[in-house]
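BUG-477 | component: ligand-complex export | severity: low

The export step for GBH jobs runs without errors, but we want the raw record kept on the ticket for reference. Input record follows.
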Amino acid sequence: MTTFGPDFVFGSATASYQIEGAVAEDGRGPSIWDTYSHTPGATEYGDTGDVACDHYHRWREDVGHIAALGLDAYRLSIAWPRVQPTGRGPLNPAGVRFYRDLLDALTAAGVQPLVTLYHWDLPQELEDAGGWANRDTAFAFADYARAMAQELGDRVHTWTTLNEPWCTAYLGYASGVHAPGRTEPATALAAVHHLNLAHGLAVQAIREVLPDARCSVTLNFHVLRAADPADPEDADAVRQIDAVANRAFTGPMLEGAYPEDLIADTAAITDWSFVRDGDLAVVHQPLTALGVNYYSTTMVRRAPEGDATSDNSGHRESAASPWVGADRVAFVREPGPYTAMGWNIAPEALTELLLDLHRRYPTLPTVVTENGAAFEDEVSPDGRVHDPRRVSYLHDHIAAVAAARERGADVRGYFAWSLLDNFEWAWGYARRFGIIRVDYDTLERTWKGSAHWYARLTRTRELPAVDDVEPSVREVG
Ligand code: GBH
């Protein structure tokens, strides 16, 4: 029997642009995702976040679902352009009030709020001034973080600076499949550094206001496999992708330096002169916890010169690669099973990742801030929503977290991605990750089997069997 003690935190996660809608209401300014999603061809079916789950108007109902699920915590993100429409200068009181009311409702329901300051919706005006390629953006972010600490400080349990800066830098500025849709490898590396700097400056700014603030960052770790583990060339491809994807962030944030092999591998692209004296000391801040987003593994091999890097990531097609400086790395499709994103399912890799992080950073607790899967749900005539593969996915990955804990990893919590079906970035509404189904015509919410299953877990704190998906009399939904 797999059991979790009372201190282990079970939650679920969302992000502002993916659920809120109301993009032009109450003084919200435009973000790069408004611009990008309205660009023809950028997203599947031209979907945008204009309405999304209409969470901006339905948040009270959604807090009701969070409470009914028995969640210990809820991970949300603040839309920077909603609280500070141009990314600089005066705050928008209506935007601040929205988050204050939401945080109060969560607290009243006994749910810890974990707040991410940046889940990809950069104010458009900051992009017009250069976006993450511009060092000034890092300082604007710190000002925004300070303002949020002042306005919302006592209501937030844990602050997370950035969600997955890998995606912001490489999908936004190298492959261009995310906003702002730029395809400039050197710019992507400048963005990496300015994001790292933004993180450090923001942690400092938050702690100027709230000296004891719990601060973290969420990274999407690439768990890498060599196509041929016995081939040293494939092992070197693993090392190279680990540098550009993982250690480009953990190096400066957690160890105070960029990896030397990363600088060497990218020497033809940039001289890294955007890293100024003193920056690394700023980036390297003590953190309360490290957020870990995990979905799948990545397999690579050494490719001959000129063999274009294939990106089998399940991102929408792009001619440009997110893998800056990795022209001689090829990506190999792994054995299934796969989710609807085309991502292979590998729960044992989550155990490995958590143990590896514990070994490298023994005093830094981890929290799984996202894990989940897109599948096509089956809606039966009586309106029940069946998602047995999502239940299995969650079951196996939560068991993988328990296994890591048994072997000594200091993992403090697990957040299912996502509370609701929502705007899945370039895939729009064509991919559903929610444990609660959203009908995009009526915006009605319906608990899937996985929500009933997760509610059983939060209530009993024992991992339920995968067929334990029947609604309980104590549940709404
Ligand atoms: C997260 O991104 C986001 O935080 C969240 O907003 C989103 O809805 C959710 O996951 C589901 O997509 O790097 O090419 O080897 C996850 C993005 C997905 C990026 C897996 C890396 C691995 C393939 N990550 N992907 S690859």
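Assignee comment: Attached the raw record above. The pocket of GBH is lined by residues 15, 18, 163-164, 167, 220, 222, 293, 295-296, 298, 311, 313, 370, 417, 424, 433 (CB under 6 Å).
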